[in-house]
Design goal:
This protein has 296 residues and is an all-alpha fold. It has 14 helices and no strands. The protein has one domain. Helices cover 74% and strands 0% of the residues. The chain starts with 6 loop residues before the first helix and ends with a helix.
Length: 296
């Protein structure tokens, strides 16, 4: 094992903390909307955050493990270090960590099922299943171009709506619509990742949307996802005629202009690592601004 990395640093590389805001943001939004509706439950919200974050961590570990098994990381030069491919962690260790992460998420799910019933069973099972299937088996979502759709749904309306439901035991169209924003920002994060890796993914046989339709399509997908997500609060206000302060969250588009320009002008992919991190930070900022605005 290379001495340049401590054990803690290696596992931080493995779980990819910069991506975890995709799991945290919809829980923040769902909890704020539950609080405003008079249904806030601290333990339920904490369990949703714990479970959702662990599913994201498990998915990242599964991605590291199964990409290694399929040989998809051999040509990778850009992006975060893949710890299994780099020899920093053995396949057995990364697989064990993956199972542990999903197992702990399952335990959180048991508590949420106790609170909110069987609908949470379906959400939990599907979330963990798709987390594994993201890179596992011949049907892997990340290899077929279907990942974008599932990221939109499960990191958007499902995560936001699920968080709201476990606290209020009800759901409504405003919550589902609000969930589209974090889902779209998460699609943008995925798109940056796929645009950066487009050439190595071609070699590895990963038919992401960027590989299938080209870099121009991916750049347009990123831009449209960011812009559409930023407009969600305005649509919600027009629909409900309430919570106009939540529309202030649309201002994140100003912070997104520089990353959008980098994506549109990108030639070699080297700058996209910073764009990925910036997009995740914009997602967090959006979730905080929207939530505060919804509560005021």
């Amino acid at each position: 094992m290379p001495t340049a990395y401590s054990k803690s640093k290696i596992w931080l590389l493995a779980i990819r903390p910069k991506t975890l805001w995709a799991a945290v943001a919809p829980v923040i939004i769902g909890t704020a909307m539950a609080y405003e509706a008079g249904g806030f439950q601290l333990l339920a919200g904490a369990a949703a955050l714990f479970g959702g974050t662990l599913i994201q961590i498990g998915t990242n570990l599964a991605n590291d493990y199964f990409d290694f098994k399929k040989g998809a990381d051999y040509q990778r030069e850009l992006g975060p270090t893949r710890v299994t491919q780099a020899g920093l962690v053995s396949p057995t260790e990364i697989k064990t960590a993956m199972v542990l992460a999903f197992g702990l998420a399952f335990l959180a799910g048991i508590y949420l099922v106790y609170l909110a019933g069987w609908p949470i069973v379906a959400i939990g099972i599907l979330s963990i299943t798709f987390g594994v299937l993201y890179t596992a088996t011949k049907l892997a979502l990340g290899y077929s171009g279907l990942a974008d759709f599932f990221v939109l749904v499960f990191f958007g309306p499902v995560a936001t709506g699920g968080t709201y439901y476990v606290q209020t035991l009800e759901i409504n169209s405003a919550v589902i619509l609000a969930g589209l924003a974090p889902g779209l920002f998460s699609v943008a994060i995925l798109t940056v990742n796929n645009l950066r890796d487009i050439e190595t993914d071609k070699i590895a046989g990963k038919k992401t949307m960027a590989v299938r339709f080209g870099s121009t399509f991916a750049k347009a997908e990123y831009t449209i996802a960011i812009v559409t997500a930023s407009l969600v609060p305005l649509v919600l206000w027009l629909m409900t005629k309430e919570h106009y302060r939540a529309t202030f969250a649309a201002a994140v588009i100003l912070f997104a202009l520089r990353p959008i320009r980098k994506v549109l002008s990108n030639k070699d992919g080297t700058e996209l690592n910073s764009v990925l991190a910036q997009t995740a930070q914009i997602l967090l900022l959006y979730s905080l601004l929207f939530s505060i605005g919804w509560l005021l």
